[in-house]
């Protein structure tokens, strides 16, 4: 029908109006839940873990449920008799015959056994109403020409709102019987027994680390810290690439999924292209500086082609959005797991993340505390390890022994507390190369030459060597792991492995 004719058309009839869509709700289910609670307060414990007062459509029902919840929490009995005087003169209940409505609720629900069933109906309809509200807000924002958010920003906000709604709709978080938990622990031990190398988590393929950590464990927040130029990013990318190129057990793979462990990298410091260049350098064994400058010979191109093919098959995703908020990171990690699956999250680096913005410029410690707590919560929610890089304070430089300690972490209180594992990467060669001995005033030449020779020997001993210092591990040993560091390729590898193994960085 043309628009002009539609405007001249008569208003819809009552029958047409009855077909209009209304908010989804079920008053009978709400009454059943409330009545069951009033008859037997134990019924409240069947629904308290997932049902809140806001889930009820009828405002009166919201008030009754909230009052029952408060009385039961205080250890008092909540039934139609004890609550009678509270609701006797309530204006909202006046049209329902006052507090006698409570008695009718209780009388109608005396035979109800499965209160949780009706509670889930109420909860499901509440989620649908919120979904409608979120959808309306998304549409209204998109139509609003005065909205300052760009299209991509609106998409990200919409995804965040939908993920938050999905999270509030989850009904987990209840107590689990100990026999069930114990059986799961025994299955975990059995699985570890049958795995090669007893690596139960995501493998790093760095033998010393895998021996001490058992791989990166699901739900763990792992902090990798170090001073600038120690190789934090190189080690993190090495671990990410090694995991992505390691086949997962066939029992964990579905048809069509990538064979390797699925890794998501959030690079707030370097671009995705720079990280790809590092991986290509390590895989092709061509110095990254030569790749960047294009100083290549004819023999290099076949190696680059083969390396590119191997890298392209890895289950690795990189997000290089700068100044990312921790909420945005959480949203994107959830999306990645939903679309492709996810086994490991790498964040480079923690101090470049932004919090909720509730803290002023002088409350950086509180903001970092919020960020680390959010990363730990993300690890638990997605059941994957989160490897987050962190800077160290300058206190390291003031000591003779440059090996870092837990107290050297910037904003250390929150980072050290929330992390399950804290590791430091340390290269003595870096400091030795900047401390070339010079002859002191009045020092005999023989003594200087001896001291200089000792320095040369020390440099040769630590050349291309690195240490990973495991300073904290909540569920395992601490200690040091020696690694080989190939500075030209920007990769770490096992100290004993003098011959390069294809697919291991």
Order of helices and strands: HHHHHHHHHHHHEHEHHHEHEHEHEHHEEE
Assign the CATH architecture of the largest domain. 3-Layer(aba) Sandwich
Strand pairing plus helix content: what structural class? alpha/beta
Tally of helical segments: 21
Fill in the CATH topology of the largest domain: Rossmann fold
Q: Tell me the span between the first and last alpha carbons.
A: 67 Å
- The percent range for strand residues is 5-15%
**Highest CATH level, the class of the largest domain:** Alpha Beta
CATH H level of the largest domain: which superfamily? P-loop containing nucleotide triphosphate hydrolases
Share of helix, binned: 40-55%
Shape: elongated
Task: Say how many strands there are.
Answer: 9
Low-confidence stretches: 1-9, 11-18, 497-504
Rg: 31 Å
Mean pLDDT: 79
Please, how many domains?
2
The side-by-side strand order for the widest beta sheet comes to: 3-2-4-5-1-6-7-8-9
Largest sheet, in brief, is: 9 strands, mixed
Describe the structure.
- The protein folds into two domains: 27-168, DNAb Helicase, Chain A, CATH 1.10.860; 202-426 and 464-494, 3-Layer(aba) Sandwich (Rossmann fold), CATH 3.40.50.
- Helix content is 47%, strand content 10%.
- The protein has helices spanning 3-8, 14-17, 27-39, 44-47, 59-73, 84-87, 91-94, 100-108, 115-143, 151-168, 178-194, 207-213, 232-244, 272-284, 288-293, 300-312, 326-340, 364-382, 412-418, 428-432, 445-462, and strands at 221-226, 263-267, 316-319, 344-348, 386-391, 421-426, 465-473, 479-486, 491-494.
- Strands 3-2-4-5-1-6-7-8-9 form a nine-stranded mixed beta sheet, with helices on both faces.
- Strand 7 (465-473) and strand 8 (479-486) form a beta hairpin.
- Helix 3 packs parallel to helix 5 (59-73), helix 3 (27-39) crosses helix 9 and helix 14 packs across helix 16 (300-312).
């Amino acid at each position: 029908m043309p628009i002009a004719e539609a405007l001249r058309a008569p208003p819809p009839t009552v029958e047409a109006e009855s077909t209009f869509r209304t908010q989804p709700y079920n008053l009978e289910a709400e009454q059943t839940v409330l009545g069951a609670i009033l008859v037997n307060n134990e019924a409240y414990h069947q629904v308290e873990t997932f049902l809140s007062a806001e889930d009820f459509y009828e405002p009166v029902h919201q008030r009754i449920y909230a009052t029952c919840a408060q009385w039961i929490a205080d250890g008092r009995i909540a039934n139609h008799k004890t609550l009678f005087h509270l609701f006797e003169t309530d204006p909202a209940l006046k049209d329902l015959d006052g507090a006698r409505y409570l008695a009718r609720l209780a009388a109608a629900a005396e035979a109800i056994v499965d209160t949780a069933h009706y509670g889930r109906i109420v909860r499901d309809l509440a989620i649908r109403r919120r979904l409608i509200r979120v959808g309306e807000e998304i549409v209204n924002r998109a139509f609003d020409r005065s909205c300052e958010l760009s299209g991509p920003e609106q998409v990200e906000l919409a995804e965040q709102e939908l993920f938050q709604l999905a999270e509030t709709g989850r009904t987990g978080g209840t107590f689990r019987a100990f026999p069930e938990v114990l059986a799961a622990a025994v299955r975990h031990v059995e699985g570890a027994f049958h795995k090669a190398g007893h690596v139960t988590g995501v493998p790093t393929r760095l033998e010393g680390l895998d021996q001490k950590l058992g791989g990166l464990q699901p739900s763990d927040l792992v902090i990798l810290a170090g001073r600038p130029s120690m190789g934090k990013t190189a080690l993190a990318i090495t671990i990410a690439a090694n995991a992505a190129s390691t086949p997962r057990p066939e029992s964990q793979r579905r048809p069509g999924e990538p064979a390797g462990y699925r890794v998501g990298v959030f690079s707030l410091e370097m671009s995705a292209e720079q990280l790809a260049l590092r991986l290509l350098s390590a895989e092709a064994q061509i110095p990254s500086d030569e790749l960047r400058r294009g100083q290549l010979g004819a023999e290099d191109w076949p190696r680059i082609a083969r390396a590119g093919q191997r890298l392209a098959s890895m289950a690795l995703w990189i997000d290089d959005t700068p100044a990312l908020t921790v909420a945005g990171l959480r949203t994107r990690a959830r999306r990645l797991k939903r679309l492709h699956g996810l086994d490991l999250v790498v964040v480079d680096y923690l101090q470049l993340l932004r919090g909720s913005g509730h803290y002023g410029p002088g409350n950086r410690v509180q903001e970092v505390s919020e960020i680390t707590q959010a990363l730990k919560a993300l690890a638990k929610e997605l059941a994957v390890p989160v490897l987050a890089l962190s800077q160290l304070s300058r206190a390291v430089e003031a000591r003779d022994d440059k090996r870092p300690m837990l107290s050297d972490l910037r904003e250390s209180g929150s980072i050290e507390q929330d992390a399950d594992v804290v590791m430091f990467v340390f290269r003595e060669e870096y400091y030795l190369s900047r401390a070339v001995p010079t002859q002191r005033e009045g020092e005999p030449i023989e003594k200087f030459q001896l001291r200089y020779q000792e320095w040369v020997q020390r440099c040769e001993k630590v050349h291309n060597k690195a240490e990973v210092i495991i300073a904290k591990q909540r569920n395992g040993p601490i200690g040091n792991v020696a690694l080989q560091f190939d500075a030209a390729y920007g990769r770490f590898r096992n100290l004993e492995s003098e011959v390069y193994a294809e697919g291991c960085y």
